[in-house]
Amino acid sequence: MDIKTYIKMCDCPEIQNDWGLNAGDWFVWRDRRYSRESAYLLTNCECDHPECDCQIYGTVTGDNAIWLPHQDQLQEMMRKDWGGTEVIIQQVMYAFYHWLKCIDVSYHNTFDSMEQLWLVFVMEERHGKVWTGQEWVNANTT
User: Fold this and answer.
1) Strands 136-138 and 26-29: what pairing?
2) Closest alpha carbon to 125 in 72, 94, 81, 63
3) Are the C-beta atoms of 124 and 12 separated by less than 8 Å?
4) CA 41 to CA 51: how far, in whole Å?
């Protein structure tokens, strides 16, 4: 996956506002002093070991980090929107499949990971936005 593109795609309020800061989440630091080339795994560590990431980088918050949702987290966003646990995963998958069949092949071929493709689906379905290659814009303005 092109991590730089995925970071840019995820760095929007529509996605970041859903972040629950859970152990196992992937993120990158907003601070440019740290690498934007590699993602970090969020843990619930609060140790006092001086070489531990929690001591080196500090506490992760929505203000100092960008969440990079997994594919299953993106799928769960859709499931919650459509009724939570009442909605079976097959319904979400069917909606994704139908959306994929209806969009221009040249558009979805520009994404090189399932996370990117699911993120595009989530943004279009939940927020009416499409990815231009540089930013999210309202679908009706493209």
Assistant:
1) unpaired
2) 81
3) no
4) 16
Q: φ, ψ for residue 29 (rounded to 5)?
A: -80, 140
User: What tens digit of pLDDT does each residue of 68-96 get?
Assistant: 999 999 998 988 877 766 667 888 888 99
Residue 99: name the closest of 123, 77, 76, 80 by CA: 123
Which DSSP category does 60 fall into? Answer: -
Question: β-pairing, 136-138 with 129-131?
Answer: antiparallel
In the block, which residue shows the tokens 């970071």?
7
β-strand partners of 66: 28
**Tokens 């689906």 belong to residue:** 121
User: pLDDT tens-digit profile of 17-54?
Assistant: 999 888 888 988 887 655 666 677 776 666 666 656 66
CA distance 34 to 55: 14
Give the span between the Cα atoms of 142 and 130, in whole angstroms: 8
User: How many Å apart are CA 120 and CA 36, to the nearest integer?
Assistant: 21
Cα 126 from Cα 141, distance rounded (Å): 16
Distances (CA, A) of 24 to 67, 91, 128: 11, 26, 29
